Amino acid sequence: MKKITAFFLLVIAFTTASVQAQSRVYEVKVTGKGSPLLFIPHIGCSGDMWKDVVSELSKTHECHVFYLAGFAGLAPLDSNYTQQYKNAISDYIQTKKLKNATVIGMNYGGFIALQLAARTERVARLIVIDTYPFLAQILNPAITQEQALTFASNIKRAYLDQDKSAFHTMMYQLGKNMITNDTLKAKLYADWNAASDRKTIATALGDQMATDLRPILPAIKIPVLCFGTWYFGKTMKKMPIEEGYTMHDNFYASLTNHSVKLTETSKDFMHWDDSPWFIKEVNQFIQK
Predict the structure, then answer these.
(1) CA triple 244-275-262, angle to 5 deg
(2) How many Å is the maximal CA-CA distance in the chain?
């Protein structure tokens, strides 16, 4: 009897450990009722980055907000961060048997979302914000895979080599210059990144920079809304927004069922800088 009891205790302990290991990949908060919306954050950001948007959209939808391991103070994984995020969120969609789901991802979150859409039939629509199939192409349209790998290695090293104070300062400047017009939210962005596991976010950014998703785009048949900003094209280069639409359409040329929405007044986190416009466009897309 003691042996049987010990056996079952061992089984329970093993099962519990397995569940905890799996759940360590993310935390998720669910609010609202209706067709499901899944929100995936950008590198180093808390799922709270979606707070204002979710507050509105949860009135008519079931919102699943993901908080990823290693981001904004959550305990990190050991390795294979991007692969584990993809697998765990895909498993979540399957396990919950979500139907007619829309996945919404910001930048790195969009990078994850594109890969989810190519591998599961339960995703009905996709919304990606400030996301590019091959991120390194933004720096150089003719960049090779080898060059992208070198650049990814360099940017990873730059992240890892700074002390916490210098890193926070860099993230705050990035937040003000690129992320948002709101200086308080720029500081929040910097705080989240400074609280993140540095190896996790450096490796995740390296993964995104070095990975070319263009070959998987033809496999994505569902509608995809691609949000982008033309704030920098307008203010720095004085380029008309029509050139922005052409550029973004070219990025997604092999994604046959895509549409593009650009802003000239918001920086990268347009859901922060112009939440009413962003929510309106999301609702119109989902209701089609």
Answers:
(1) 10
(2) 80
Contact 135, 253 (CB under 8 A): no
**43 Cβ neighbours under 8 A, 6+ residues apart:** 71, 107, 108, 193, 201, 204, 205, 208
Residue 20: per-residue pLDDT = 33
Q: At what angle do helices 198-210 and 108-117 cross, to 10 degrees?
A: 60
Task: Work out the average pLDDT over 66-90.
Answer: 97
**Domains of the chain, earliest start first:** 24-286 (3.40.50.1820)
Confidence at residue 235, expressed as pLDDT on a 0 to 100 scale: 95
Residues 6+ apart with CB under 8 A from 278: 53, 227, 270, 271
Taking residues 205-216, report their average pLDDT.
96
DSSP letter for each residue of 188-233: HHHHHHHHS-HHHHHHHHHHHHH---GGGGGG--S-EEEEEE-HHH
Locus of tokens 């935390």 = 27
Measured distance CA(276)–CA(273) in Å, rounded:
9
Provide the pLDDT for residue 288: 84
Mean per-residue pLDDT, 97-109: 97
Eight-class DSSP state of 42: P
As a whole number, mean pLDDT of residues 88-113 equals 97
pTM attached to this predicted model: 0.91
Residue with tokens 């119109």: 284
Asked if residue 171 has pLDDT above 90, the reply is yes
Backbone angles phi and psi of 253, in degrees to 5: -55, -35
The span from the CA of 72 to the CA of 151, in Å, is 25
DSSP character string of 70-86: TSTTPPP-SS-HHHHHH
Nearest CA-CA partner of 203 in 39, 91, 76: 76
Query: Are the C-beta atoms of 226 and 128 separated by less than 8 Å?
Result: yes
pLDDT at 120: 79
